[in-house]
Design brief:
By secondary structure, the chain is α+β, with helices and mostly antiparallel strands. The chain is built from four helices and ten strands; from the N terminus they run H-E-E-E-H-E-E-E-E-E-E-H-E-H. The chain has two domains: 160 residues, glutathione-dependent formaldehyde- activating enzyme (gfa) (Alpha-Beta Complex), CATH 3.90.1590; 27 residues. Strands 6-7-8-9-4-3-10 form a seven-stranded mixed β-sheet. 23% of the residues lie in helices and 21% in strands. The structure holds zinc ion (2 copies). The site of one zinc ion has 6 residues, from helix 2. This is CENP-V/GFA domain-containing protein. Belongs to the Gfa family.
Length: 210
C-alpha cells in the first residue's frame, strides 16, 4: 500500500476499503502500468486501461443470467487479473449488482456497470475479473485475435445455435459435457449411436464374465 492509498483509507470506514484495492485502485503514473488497451462505456464516463496483451481466457456464455443481464442471446467475457486493469476514475461512476442476492451492494461475485448509461462493464469475481471486450478499443487484427472467444459455455441454455466450430460446453467449461455443433438432429443421432455402443460394450463384458 502506498502513501496515497493509506491516506485514502484512513478517512473511510473499513467496509469501504475495497474502493482503494484492485481492480478499483487507481494506478500511479510512476507505477510502470503499461497501457496496452483502452476501453470506455457507451457514454464515456467510465474509462479503463489494460496492461495485459491477451486475456487469460475469452468465452461466450449462454446462461440465462447473462441473457437477462445483457438483454442479449449470450454474453462475451474476457478474463483478467484484478491488477491488469486501471479504471482511470477508480470506483467512481460505477454501480454494482449481486445477481445471487439481488442487491446493489458491493458483494463478490457481482456485476459492474456504468452508473450513468448502465453499460455492463465486467463481472467481478473473488480473484478475477471477467470484462466485456465489446468496450475495448481493439485496433489491429492481432488485437482481435488476442480477444477471440475460445469456447461457448452454458450452451445447454442457448436460445440460438452458433455453428462456429468452437468447443461448446453444456455448463461450465471443462466441468460439463461437450455439445456437438448444430444441426440438432445430428447431435441426437450421435447420442443414440454412443448409447448403442455403450450397450453393446456392456453386453460383451457380461458375456465374457460368464
Ligand atoms: Zn457510461
Ligand atoms: Zn453466464
Amino acid at each position: 500500500m502506498d502513501a496515497d492509498e493509506a491516506k485514502a483509507r484512513s478517512t473511510m470506514p473499513e467496509k469501504d476499503h475495497w474502493k482503494t484495492k484492485a481492480p478499483y485502485k487507481v494506478h500511479d503514473p510512476q507505477e510502470n502500468f503499461k497501457v496496452r488497451y483502452e476501453a470506455s462505456c457507451h457514454c464515456g464516463k467510465v474509462k479503463y486501461q489494460l496492461s495485459r496483451e491477451s486475456p487469460l481466457d475469452s468465452k461466450l456464455c449462454h446462461c440465462t443470467t447473462c441473457q437477462t443481464q445483457h438483454a442479449a442471446p449470450f454474453q462475451w467475457a474476457a478474463i483478467f487479473h484484478k491488477d491488469d486493469i486501471n479504471f482511470t476514475h477508480g470506483h467512481h461512476d460505477l454501480e454494482w449488482y449481486d445477481p445471487t442476492d439481488k442487491s446493489i451492494e458491493h458483494k463478490l461475485p457481482c456485476k459492474v456497470r456504468c452508473n450513468f448509461c448502465h453499460s455492463p462493464i465486467m463481472d467481478e469475481g473473488r480473484n478475477m475479473i471477467l470484462l466485456f471486450p465489446s468496450l475495448v478499443h481493439l485496433k489491429t487484427e492481432q488485437d482481435k485475435i488476442n480477444f477471440k472467444p475460445r469456447c461457448h459455455m452454458f450452451y445447454g441454455q442457448r436460445v440460438m445455435d452458433v455453428p462456429d466450430g468452437l468447443p461448446k460446453w453444456s455448463g461450465l467449461n471443462n466441468e460439463s459435457d461437450l455439445i456437438e455443433d448444430s444441426p440438432p438432429e445430428l447431435v441426437k443421432e450421435r447420442e443414440r449411436k454412443r448409447e448403442k455402443e455403450q450397450r453393446e460394450q456392456t453386453e460383451k463384458e457380461q458375456k465374457e464374465n460368464k
